[in-house]
Write a structure and sequence with these properties.
With 145 residues, the protein is an alpha/beta fold. The protein is built from five helices and five strands. The protein is globular, with a radius of gyration of 19 Å. Bound molecules: flavin-adenine dinucleotide.
Length: 145
């Protein structure tokens, strides 16, 4: 599952059909169901969700590279109570996460945001597991990513 991704300076363009790209003035004329602005983890995940719901999606990226800060990051994502924790023999709980976050950020903790994070995080991990498999040339599943 791969949404179209147009980076402002990216050379790849479909020249025919209903996707028309005017290289002369950096304009294009495209009709889609969903437009995602930004190609970091948030944008590309949103695009995958939209695509998996059957929508025609375009991702717009303002730089000449896909990936944003996400591509430069350490790539370690903290999703409490995610499906892989149990597989790895660990357990987690909402109470433990709340205790940890209270200790880390004290009264700046926004309960509604934390609740949304705890509710949606494990579902997001499960969705990405089902929908997306990163495979590089020469990679080996579980050994070399
Ligand atoms: C060096 C470094 C290491 C990090 N390591 C970790 C880590 O290990 N674990 C962790 O959880 N977090 C880490 N982070 C933080 C993490 O990378 C970010 O929180 C996360 O990548 C943000 O994702 P995002 O999709 O919201 O934004 P981004 O990945 O920044 O994506 C936003 C994209 O939107 C594009 N954009 C912005 N405005 C427009 C516009 N008007 N039109 C078109 N495109 C636009 C940007 O160019 C960019 O590509 C790290 C950050 C850095 C810099």
């Amino acid at each position: 599952m791969k949404p179209s991704c147009f980076s402002n300076f990216a050379p790849q363009r479909r020249e025919s059909g209903r996707n028309r790209w005017n290289k002369a003035d950096d304009m294009f004329d495209e009709t889609v169901d969903a437009v995602v602005v930004g190609s970091g983890a948030a944008g590309l995940t949103a695009a995958l969700v939209a695509k998996s719901a059957g929508l025609d999606v375009v991702v717009l990226e303002k730089t000449d590279r896909i990936g944003g800060n996400t591509a430069m990051s350490g790539g370690a994502v903290w999703i409490p109570d995610n499906p892989h924790l149990a597989e790895a023999g660990h357990s987690d709980s909402r109470d433990a996460v709340m205790t940890y976050l209270h200790a880390m950020i004290g009264n700046r903790l926004q309960r509604d945001l934390v609740d949304a994070f705890l509710d949606a995080g494990p579902k997001a991990v499960a969705f990405l597991d089902r929908s997306f498999h990163l495979e590089r040339v020469g990679s080996r599943d579980g050994a070399r990513l």
